[in-house]
Amino acid sequence: MSPSDRIIVPLDVPTVEGAIALLDKLPEVTFWKVGLQLFIAAGVEILDLLKQRQKRIFLDLKLHDIPNTVAGGVASATTHGVDLLTLHATAGRAALTAAAQAVGVHPQPKLLAITLLTSLNARELAFDLKIPLELPEYVLQMALLAKESGIDGAVCSPQEVAQLREICGPDFLLVCPGVRPTWAEAGDQRRVMTPREALDAGADYLVIGRPITAASDPVAAWQRLVEEVAKG
Ligand SMILES: O=c1ccn([C@@H]2O[C@H](COP(=O)(O)O)[C@@H](O)[C@H]2O)c(=O)[nH]1
Questions:
Q1: Which domain of life is it from (predicted)?
Q2: What's the pTM?
């Protein structure tokens, strides 16, 4: 896999037309993420469009519901060519297990558990969410719960990826948002590292959105990122 294939770009836009404009502008991007904004607006039409263009699809719906409902959502995703699909680890062991069983014999999607959103920091974990664990330990426990339940990997910040790689092993997929080159704003991301640092720590894929899509020149931003990750 070339370094650029490890970068997943979110289609965080409100319309199919906006998504097509980004796809046309960045033809070298092979892996795109569809999140709540675009999926609620466009539905499976956007998945079909990405498949027609032979793109890989990360469907980031962050399922969080009772086991039967989560399993139904996963089963639907198996019929739409989705490569990666997210659900929250905090849905619990029964929901995670039901999700893994719903994929069944299908080769895809690979399931990723959200451990702790990259927009949250240690203070919010302790004081707002009332979680009495240190942040790295909480993320690790969520990843282990997912792994024990048959989930393929986790979404974590680059700051936790080295520990998760060491403890969860080489085959557990680790996908990192919260990635910021030195020349981009962090925005609402709280636990960030640079693309090169995230890959060196053991991430399989990086999700990088606004540093590219909100740049004044998205093509130049993409090329600069690819050069940076290729330097490792
Ligand atoms: O913990 C998480 C889980 C998902 N995301 C998603 O990743 C992208 C990040 O976009 P940027 O513009 O690079 O911040 C976005 O679609 C989030 O919904 C995340 O950031 N953190």
A1: Bacteria
A2: 0.98
